[in-house]
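Lecture notes, continued. The same structure-token format from the folding unit now serves as the input rather than the output. Read the line below as a description of shape only.
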């Protein structure tokens, strides 16, 4: 099953035997515990829910839910993945590891990008600065006009200053370049969205 949750560790390089250097992002992927299995008969669709990490102060409802999968399961993150068919032999409490991934596999990674706080239009939307001559008083990074005389309103979707970053970002077709089953590590060629220690989802095609 090529689906797993993990934590972004950081970027490094892998040097092949021929001397080729490959930039990779290392993820601490799994092990994830199967906390719920949904089927078409019971829920209307097939899905596998898994938990990752070590949680703190879980609510009673969540504690009771994951307790069905095992007494020692206390996940930090719960996430559900829809599948066409439930893998044969999969049951509650099973561990999902990086064993399902092989070198050269293409995967899709989803994470939360770095938050940059409140940003202006120059940084947020790549606007140009105004000229800094002939009477300008230094306000070269202001938005400028945001509407016409009619209608007397600002249209929705207008590019203006606001919160930047901390969005869900998905990157497709990243190649698996490194797998360490013993240490639960996986290396993906290229960059992965999010800061270090950020939670990411890795999905591949069987």
């Amino acid at each position: 099953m090529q689906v797993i949750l993990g934590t972004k560790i950081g970027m490094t390089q892998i040097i092949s035997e021929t001397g080729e250097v490959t930039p990779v992002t290392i993820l601490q992927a799994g092990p994830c515990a199967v906390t719920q299995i949904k089927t078409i008969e019971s829920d209307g669709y097939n899905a596998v829910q898994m938990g990752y990490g070590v949680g703190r102060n879980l609510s009673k409802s969540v504690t009771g839910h994951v307790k069905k999968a095992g007494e020692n399961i206390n996940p930090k993150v719960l996430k559900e993945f829809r599948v066409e068919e439930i893998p044969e032999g999969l049951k509650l409490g099973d561990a999902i590891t990086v064993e399902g991934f092989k070198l050269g596999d293409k995967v899709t990674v989803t994470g939360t990008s770095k938050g940059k706080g409140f940003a202006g239009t120059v940084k947020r939307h790549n606007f140009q600065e105004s000229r800094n001559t002939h009477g300008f008083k230094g306000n070269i990074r202001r938005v400028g006009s945001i509407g016409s005389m009619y209608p007397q309103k600002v249209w929705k979707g207008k590019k203006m200053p606001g919160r930047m970053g901390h969005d869900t970002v998905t990157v497709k077709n990243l190649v698996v370049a490194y797998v360490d089953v013993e240490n639960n590590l996986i290396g993906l060629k290229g960059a992965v969205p999010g800061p270090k220690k950020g939670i990411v989802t890795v999905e591949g095609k069987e």
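Point for the exam: Residues 120-161 form one domain.
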